[in-house]
């Protein structure tokens, strides 16, 4: 019998890669999409075209406990991946209440559905936790044992879901697991996250479609991996004998400024940095300012540095990241250049 997976957040970056991954493993993949006024299935349309016998999309919303319950009941999946979230940290300061509804209570809606439907011994559950829970880091690098200090409504909401998942595991013996994933990117990354904003922005400047890119804190440091590698870890977490929690990271850290330099080099753009702090700017070969910073992109409280230690995942899951940050940047740039040059929307 083919295994059935249910993915909340299938239309997002990770959801689309996870669906492809599970279909290759011969799963039947069910995903939840939201109703929106314009199409929001760009990232999975190609999957539907290629695999429509084993790929199913259902309307639903994580904030609507009845729809969550209904989907879990009709599908009765073997594995549920909760990847759905209002996932933008800066936006979470603007809509904290909504963010908590989706990112905190949404997880609880799934856990309760599994329990109340009596599926607690059948279903394995994965919760998409985040390095943002470490926030103002209390030690570096961060491991599964590092205490949390979230710095945004997003981070706080994810801490709630992390502990709820552990609580359901301990209280009801559910196979419920947390991944604590550090930043992961790809050509399918949302356009307002910093890596994609940089690859699109510099590609547009290179093609003469834009003059300048405006960013926030370019000194923030992140541990960036590739989403393709990270969805494999999500699956591996649910294939273990015992439910557990895992940090998924590369163990390498770069600043936003360093990422810009990688992208500029890959695009053969010679840039020179001048100035300090908020006034630091990047100039092109003709001395035009092409990157500057603006406080409007600063967060009310920033997470300055994140660096993960994936030793436990390497040892128990036998997982390791395969794609380096330069390879990641290269793939993102090539994709953006293709989209911009041909006005090609396929990702
Ligand atoms: P993403 O691209 O922003 O995708 C989020 C997904 O959640 C989308 O499919 C979105 O649907 C869906 N969603 C949002 N609100 C929903 C709701 N109320 N009901 C149902 N679905 C809803 O995020 P991602 O980068 O793939 O990340 C996947 C998960 O991992 C998220 O939970 C994120 O918080 C977490 N995470 C991400 C990273 C990272 O670096 N990418 C790191 C750690 C953890 P629409 O397409 O309709 O908006
Ligand atoms: O910011 C700085 C910004 O928005 C990274 C989400 O997937 O990863 C992501 O959250 C850094 C921050 O990602 C701009 O201040 C500078 O320090 O790409 P980001 P994030 O906040 O780390 C975690 C693990 C998640 O779980 C989240 O869901 O870059 N930065 N200038 C900027 N950031 C943005 N977005 N835009 C700028 O112009």
Key phrases:
alpha/beta; binds ligand F7E; binds NADP nicotinamide-adenine-dinucleotide phosphate; 7-stranded parallel sheet
Describe this structure as you would to a colleague.
This protein has helices spanning 13-24, 45-51, 65-75, 89-94, 96-116, 153-172, 194-206, 227-238, 256-266, 311-317, 325-342, and strands at 4-8, 28-33, 55-59, 79-82, 124-130, 175-181, 184-185, 213-215, 221-222, 225-226, 245-248, 254-255, 272-274, 281-283, 289-293. It starts with a strand and ends in a 5-residue tail after the last helix. The model has no long low-confidence stretch (mean pLDDT 97). The protein is an alpha/beta fold and 347 residues long. The longest helix has 21 residues, at 96-116.
């Amino acid at each position: 019998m083919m295994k059935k997976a249910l993915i909340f957040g299938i239309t997002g970056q990770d959801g689309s890669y996870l669906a492809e991954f599970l279909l290759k493993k011969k799963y039947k993949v069910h995903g939840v999409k939201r109703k929106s006024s314009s199409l929001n299935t760009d990232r999975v349309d190609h999957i539907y075209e290629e695999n429509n016998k084993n790929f199913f999309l259902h309307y639903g919303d994580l904030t609507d406990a009845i729809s969550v319950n209904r989907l879990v009941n009709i599908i009765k999946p073997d594995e549920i991946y909760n990847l759905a979230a209002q996932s933008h940290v800066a936006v979470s300061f603007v809509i904290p209440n909504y963010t908590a509804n989706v990112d905190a209570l949404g997880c609880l809606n799934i856990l309760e559905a599994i329990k109340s439907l009596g599926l607690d011994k059948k279903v394995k559950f994965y919760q998409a936790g985040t390095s943002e829970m470490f926030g103002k880091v209390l030690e570096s690098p961060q491991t599964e044992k590092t205490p949390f200090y979230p710095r945004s409504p997003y981070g706080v909401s994810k801490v709630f879901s992390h502990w709820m998942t552990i609580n359901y595991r301990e209280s009801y013996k559910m196979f419920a697991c947390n991944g604590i994933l550090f930043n992961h990117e790809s050509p399918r990354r949302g356009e307002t996250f910093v890596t994609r904003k940089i690859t699109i922005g510099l590609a547009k400047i290179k093609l003469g479609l834009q003059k300048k890119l405006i960013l926030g804190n370019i000194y923030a440091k992140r541990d960036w991996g590739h989403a393709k590698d990270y969805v494999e870890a999500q699956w591996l977490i649910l294939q273990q004998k015992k439910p557990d929690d895992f940090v998924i990271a590369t163990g390498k850290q770069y600043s936003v400024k360093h990422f810009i330099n990688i992208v500029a080099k890959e695009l053969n753009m010679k840039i020179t940095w001048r100035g300090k702090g908020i006034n630091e700017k990047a100039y092109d070969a003709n001395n035009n300012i092409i990157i500057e910073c603006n406080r409007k992109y600063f967060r009310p409280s920033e997470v300055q540095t994140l660096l993960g230690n994936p030793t436990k995942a390497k040892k128990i899951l036998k997982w390791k990241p395969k794609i380096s940050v330069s390879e990641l940047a290269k793939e993102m740039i090539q994709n953006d250049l293709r989209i911009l040059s041909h006005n090609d929307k396929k990702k």
